[in-house]
Write the structure tokens for this entry.
Amino acid sequence: MRKITGYAWHTGKLQKPVRLLVVSDLHDGKYADILPLLSDIDALLLPGDLVIRYGPFYKRGIAFLREAAKTVPTFLGVGNHETRLKNFDGFVRQVEEAGARILFNTYERLGELVIGCWYRPRNYGHEDMLPAFEAEAGCRVLMSHRPEDYAPYLAGRDIDLVLSGHAHGGQVRLFNRGLFAPGQGLFPQYTKGVTGRMIISAGAGDHIPAPRINNSREILRIDLD
Ligand SMILES: [Fe+2]
């Protein structure tokens, strides 16, 4: 079962409110229950880990993008599983053929929104997109797969909303805290919910069969105004 968590996010920058659906960490999982949610949104954002890099597995992920892109503008930001795919260029082609946009230290405009994906540019020899992104007019929404990157790299920047995933809610949740997250280890600080201007999703899927406890798979529906 996936839980849909709703947020109202005020920026004061939009003439017309916008509704986003955010599906992070689908990990090539089933998506039939997500399709009906696409009917009353303005864009679908996937902040990383659509795929499972072992294998690699992304047939279902691409099929989901194809279905979604028929209905709404669909933006995939990369996560660690995408960047570590052996044939990344082939994957990019499939995303584009499916009618979705893939972002990797890049951004695109959608009406009053500017939608970007920041992912550790120095590690990939990319120019840091943030100065140009901050200079764009409108409401700046940034996908950043790893929530642990928020404090060191993004918190001080001029961004209206950061969308993150990766931590899978901390896998096991006790007293509203996660137990473990990749990149953060035991008792991680950033696993779910709001921190500053970032919303972290507990993720819509899993790539290993480890159980989730007190920690539903999660999709976000965000009303931006
Ligand atoms: Fe993930």
Remarks:
- Residues 25, 27, 49, 166, 168, 203, 207 surround fe (ii) ion (CB under 6 Å).
- The domain at 2-224 is CATH 3.60.21 (Purple Acid Phosphatase; chain A, domain 2).
- Helices lie at 59-71, 80-83, 88-97, 130-134, 150-154.
- The first helix runs from residue 59 to 71.
